[in-house]
Amino acid sequence: MIATLPDVTLTIVSFNTADLLRHCLASIAAIEPGLAVQTIVVDNASSDGSADMVEREFPWVELIRNPTNRYFAPAHNQAFPLARGRYVGILNPDTRLFPDTLHRMTAFMDARPGAGISTCLYVREDGTPLKAEAHNYWRFHSLWYGTLCRNTAGERLYWALGGAPSQPIRVEDDAIETDVVSGAFLFVRKEALDRIGGFDRRLLMYATEDDMCASVKAAGYRVYYYAGARLVHAVSASVRRSSPFRIRWLFAADLMRYHRKHGDVLTRWLAVPTLFGAYVIDTLVIVSRGGRWK
Length: 294
What we know:
about 290 residues, alpha/beta, ten-stranded mixed beta sheet, 11 helices, 12 strands, globular
């Protein structure tokens, strides 16, 4: 699939999502001509034949087989040193590109040399847009947001206690400058990725995009949401196949690490006890629902 030095490298981490991954890779194979794309899949010891499927059906994909589940961020970090594109698209297996998605994203970033990371509009299977300010971009979240906004009841409490919706940094036509864009599709300038060294090695699954965007902004780049390109996203499909107790602990632990790294003195001090308490409540909710989070 690569005739010249690639314009874009796509990195995908898979864990027991063979059916979704097949559709994702098929959408990459169907992109419009004129753009050279390198695709790397890191399989985290899937038991559903994901890696064999990739090797058999998509021989142009560079496949890394991990003997254990290394989780999202460490597995992507394995792929980054192999990336040769000017841009790196960090892509979830539960997404599907449209034929012009990468062309539009590349043109958008080429026109903005100061942009370090961007993402696009996410749509459902039926083509209706997901709520962009919830799924695509947001300002940096406080510890209190991460502690309370874990379900609908928590969100209502957060707003009742005075929480305010975040506002974009700047709006320009069909683009919004913001702090963070969704990790389901992070379109990153390779030079920016090299400067920050990829994902923080201490994070596994959550707050990874918040941390990467914070690092990219600290390096002098900007972060954008661009509505002129789109992809299909089946929200959290891979997570729904994992133990809810394990997922909620990973969520709490990663947020602890994130806020202890980026928070002020008070936030760093409160992060562990506050988020551990929230995790205990989460486990009680899961038990009360018969082992389900949602």
